[in-house]
Amino acid sequence: MDRRPRLYRTPKGWAEEAPSHCPHGHRFTGGCVLVGHRSCKTIGRHRTHTCLTCLDEGRPDSDATVYTPPLTADCDHTAFDERSVM
Predict the structure, then answer these.
(1) Tens of pLDDT along 11-64?
(2) Which residue from 32, 30, 5 is spatially nearest to 16, judged by alpha carbons?
(3) Phi, psi (rounded to 5 degrees) for 55
(4) What whole-number distance in Å separates Cα of residue 51 and Cα of residue 56?
(5) Does pTM surpass 0.85?
(6) Taking a C-beta distance cutoff of 8 angstroms, is the pair 38, 6 a contact?
(7) Which of 21, 39, 40, 43 sits 20 to 30 Å CA-CA off 76?
(8) 3-state SS, residue 12
């Protein structure tokens, strides 16, 4: 499986394709999604898209977040200070 992010050309360079919906079907629009980053020793990094609607409904962060590229069993996540985290 190709885990590299899909890129497309823009007038200012290249951009990464972002997910349009969370796993529960909520649309990712302005004010409804928190975009972040998670370091990974295996592939470098994952972009995170966390659904604020899911969090408002009381879902745990792990059920409300989409990772690009997707997480796998081989991923080894680190904190900014290089500590391993789950």
Answers:
(1) 999 888 889 999 999 999 999 999 998 888 888 888 999 999 999 999 998 899
(2) 5
(3) -65, -40
(4) 9
(5) no
(6) no
(7) 21
(8) coil
